[in-house]
Each structure stands twice: as C-alpha cells, then as structure tokens.
Amino acid sequence: MTSINIKRWIVKPFIFFTIMLILKSYLAWAVIFDVLLPWKSLLTEIPFAWALFCLIERFASKRKLGYYMTVNLLVTAIFFAAIMYFKYYGVIVTYHAAEQVNQVTAVRNSVFSLMDPYYLLIFADVLVLGYYFLFNRNGRIYKKEQINLGRGSRKFSALFAASLALCLFNVLPNKASMNEIKKAQEMGILNYEAYTIFAQDKIDLVKASDITQEAVDSAKGITVPANPKLQGAAKGKNLIILQMESLQNFLIGLKIDGKEITPNLNAVMKESLYFPNFYQMVGQGNTSDAEFVVNTSYYIPPRGAATQMYVDKVLPSLPRLMEKNGYQTATFHTNDVEFWNRGELYSSLGWGKYYDHRFFGDEDVFFFGPSDEVLYRKTTAKLKEMSASGQPFYAQIISMSAHHPFTIPEEKYKMKLPERYEGTFVGDYIRAQNYADYAFGQLVQELKESGLWDNSLIMIYGDHMGLPIYSLDHDDKELMKEIYGHEYGYANMTNIPLIIHGAGLSAQTLEQVGGEIDIMPTAANLLGVSLKDHLHFGQDIVNQTGNLLPERYYLPSGSFIASSGLLIPGNSFEDNTQYPIALSNKPPASTEDEYNRALRLLQLSDSYVSQLPLKKSE
C-alpha cells in the first residue's frame, strides 16, 4: 500500500479501524470459540468498538488518529490476551488476571510455546502504521500537520446511543449464564470484559451456624458408615503425600510401541490401592490450588487462586490435624516459596516447616528449580532426620520436573520416542513424564533403603492436567486418539491417578469416582485420625461408591463430575452437555438435582471459608 493510499484511508479512520477490528474479532473467535467468519461477532464486538469510535468523532477536534490508534492497540491487546490465555488455561481472560501477572510472567515460556505464528497477524496493522508514522517521511509530515478532521456531528451521537443500546442488549440477557465461555460468546469478548469490571463479585453467604457436616453430607448425597473399612489400617505410620506435576491417569499402564512410559509408577500401583476414576479440582493457582484443596478439603475460591483469596485466613487443615495427633509436619518444593504466594499459604495451613529453593539450592536446575532427582534425594535425607526423632511425620512433596511446556534437557531423556511423536506437544509431555517416573523410581528406592517405605502411608496423585484439549493441534489430537482409542475429551483431560500404598493395604483397583478434595478424609480414615471437629467437603472414597465433585475454572461454573457422568451447563442446566466419566462406557445421566446440589456445595464452602477467623486473630 502506497503512502498516498494509506493517507486516504486514515483520513477516514472510522471505516479503516472498523475493518481492522472485524478481522481481529474473526481471528479471536476462530481460536476461542472455534467459529470461522462468525456473523455474531459483528453484532457483539463492533458495537463496542463503534461506541468508542463515536466518542472520538464527537469530542476530539485534533489528533483523532492518535486516539483511534490507541483504541485499536488496546482492543488488539485484549483480543491477543484472550487468545493466549484461552490456549493456556481454557478460560476467558478477565481483568482479574492482573492479580497473577507475576506468575504468568514466570511461565511465559509455557504460554508462548502454545502460540501459532498466525496469531501475530493480529498486530499487523499496528506494525504497519507504526512504521509509517515513525520511519516514513510522508507519515511523519502527516503526523506533524495534526490535521483537524472536523468535530463529529450529531449522527455520531445517534450512532453512539445505538451502539451502546446494542451492547446492553448483548449483555443484560446473558448475565445469569453459568458457562463463562458461553457468556463471552453471547455477550461478545469486549462486552464480557467490560461486564466483568462492573459486575459485583457477591457471595450469598450461608450463616456459619447452618454450615454443618450433616448439611455437607446431605448435599453430597452420602451417609458415613458407622464402621468404615480399613479404619486405622495405617495407624501410627508416617504420612507421605507426593503431588506429581501434570500427571494424568492415561499414563498409568500405558505402553507405546511396547515400551512402558511409567514403569515405576506401574510397579507401585500393582501393590497398592489404585483409583483410576480420580479428578483434578484446581483453578487459577494450578499446583498451589492442588496443595490447598488436598490439605483443607475445601473447594477453590469462585475466582482467583486460593493463595490470593484465602491466605488471610486461619485454615483448618491436614497439617494442623496431624500436628494435633502428635505428628511433625513439613512440605518440600524446589521452587521459591514466594511463587504463587506459597509462603502465606503455608502459614495459613499451619505447616510446621517448609523447604524451598533455599534448601535445595541450584543443583541440576531446569524449569523453576532443581530436578526431581535432587528433590527426592535431599527430601529423603531430611525425612530420615525427622524419623530419627521417634516422632511420626506428615510430609508433602511437590514434584516439578514434568512441567509445561515439557521440554526437558536432552541429558534427561530416558526414552526414545517413536518418530510420529517427535516434535509434538504430546511427545514432549510423554518424555517429560517418563523422566519424572525415572526420578520417582529413585525416590522409592531411597525410601526402601531408609526403612521409610514400609513405615509410611504413601499417597501419590497428579496435581492437574498436562494436556489441555484447547492446547493441542491436529497432530496432537490424533496421537491422543491413538492412545485412548477414541476422541480425547474433557473427562479424560481432568482425569488424574490416585495411588495409595502402605503395609496392610491389599492391592486392588477401586473404580469409584474421587477428587483431590477426598484425599484428606481418606488419609484420616486410614490413619485412624478423627475428623469430628474438622468440617470437610471431601469423603473417604474407600468407603463410598457415589460422589459429587463440583468443578470450577478449567470447566465452566456449574460443571460437576459424578458417578452419573460429567455435566457442563450452557446458559443454564437446560442446555447442558454431558459426557461419560473417563473410564466408563455407560451413557451419562446426570440430573438437575445433582446440578443444584453441586452449586449448593460450592456456596457452603465459599461461605464457610469466608467466615473463618483472620490469621491475626490466631
């Protein structure tokens, strides 16, 4: 395009930038909503942009072009952020994401590993115009002229009113929608972003006196047995909870071209209680949210990470419970304790001690800290010291080497991938998990040699998914279809393993549904520790065959997993979509009663945690 043509178009910036934003909205909708050339984006995104453009035309007498370019850059940034956030988290970004800017910066390599080059086309006009005005002689002259393009007429006032009315028409009928992605699609991305700024985050609190264990169990639809199976089977033993980074259940027992991916986990699983229908329950905080849910048996907050929203509270927790029963407590993580505000989380949970990067040092570092090999070696040495005191301990170990984007150093490769997996996201994930399993094998050996293996109840689970559906390209999806024998779905994506090993526990596979919120009550039963004074929203899954697991963040609000299947609501329950649970061939049959009870459980948990005492009152 020549300088003359550019000048001709930018004298009419309303038309030029409208066309640019139509193209950008098409790109954003194609990635996020999987809709090409959506007519609906014209009715949702463009009125928002026109409202801003009309303000410029109506009130700016000079430098209109500068205002247009500013609005264009802002909207471009919103669309690009929405694309990248969706590819990484599978949710629609809002201004609340600013609260986690430090964390997103820390995982920028993970985020940008998901970027297809064509996403950058969204900035093409910004770069062309920037070059024109900064480096082109005619552009610089035009810029200096500061041409008065004329004050907008009343027609722009009328168009502003019409555009604003259309924005409200898109927003108001969809306020009550449960599904955030559906809500953004019905409102339009730009309207949705504005709506979240002005919408009130309000919890309809249940009175503390009405939040009882009986009320929780009733909402869950369970009855606690008078004489639970395996109660106290591990009484007096140490408790070791190993949270493995991004470990999904399909890896357990998986062979690719005859080669086991997780041979060490497979060997332990065959000697343990194994729960293959187990699910993640994390949110924006990912790994740190898993730590919160496992150690409290509460649900994640309605928005934000638990480390941002709940750390001002004195949280009843598994570390406090075990300390009350004579245990030492410590948590081990090779990253800096301030990442995801873990220092405050650990204080709120009442951990006796924590060991982070300062303890593990800078040996064999990749991703965010020392390798799992270093983690396990130094942690085992510390556990031996704790055990030597004669007092039992509860230790949580957080692995990290199999972290997104799973590009581990070549010297850590422990397997050769088949050619079809090379250079793929799925292949990198499998290779990283193969290394994590290798390091886990060293942990098992060290615990056995120290005598801790036979004197501990050991619970192993994945913290969250590693292969989100929305992060996979066509080749990755084909590989997952090869692995599963069917299309990779939401139930598969959220499915993580739980393995429980301990003397006195016979090896068996239990197919009842469970989630991370169930780990604490299950551990309490096996250790013979009473939960009488600890309100909990999980259940001892050894003794329950039914379950109801409300999900947040990675699945839209109102979603839940139960023995009846996985349900994802649309605008309400009526237009829901249902899927079988991960290891079931039965057609899903979730009910509105389950849906309402799942929402009730979230309300009870939110109300309970929000009314807990502040840390300063402890």
Automatic annotation (TrEMBL):
Binding residue positions for Mn(2+): E245, T287, D463, H464
Transmembrane segment boundaries: 14-33, 39-56, 65-86, 118-135, 156-173
Binding site for substrate: H403
Keywords annotated in UniProt: Cell membrane, Manganese, Membrane, Metal-binding, Transmembrane, Transmembrane helix
SUPFAM superfamilies, A to Z: Alkaline phosphatase-like
Cytoplasm in keyword set: no
Topology class, membrane: Multi-pass membrane protein
Biological pathway: Cell wall biogenesis; lipoteichoic acid biosynthesis
GO CC term, one of those recorded: plasma membrane
Domain Sulfatase N-terminal as annotated: residue spans: 237-529
Record localization: Cell membrane
Any one GO molecular function term: metal ion binding
Active site per database record: T287
UniProt-listed PANTHER family: LIPOTEICHOIC ACID SYNTHASE, PHOSPHOGLYCEROL TRANSFERASE I
Family of this protein: Belongs to the LTA synthase family.
Name of the protein in question: Sulfatase
Organism in which the protein naturally occurs: Paenibacillus sabinae T27
